[in-house]
Please model this.
Amino acid sequence: MDDATLRQTVLTTLHRIAPEIEPEELLPARPLRDQVDLDSMDWLNFLQALHTALGVEIPERDYAKLVTLDDLVAYLGAGQA
Model:
């Protein structure tokens, strides 16, 4: 899956968890949790939904690496390779 498709999947998944967001307004290099009001449970639900959608394992030890939209796309792309 290419980066554009991954990015769209991440944004679609995020929008399901936080329907109030405007995905096109998110800045890819800024921390997502600063841009979207997600509590810890929403964040975990988001990461689990990404795992379900893409089949990429996201171990808890890697959560701290997944800060920005760019981080998520890079991580998920590497996980699919």
About this structure: The two ends are 9 Å apart (CA to CA). The mean pLDDT is 93. DSSP finds four helices and no strands in the chain.
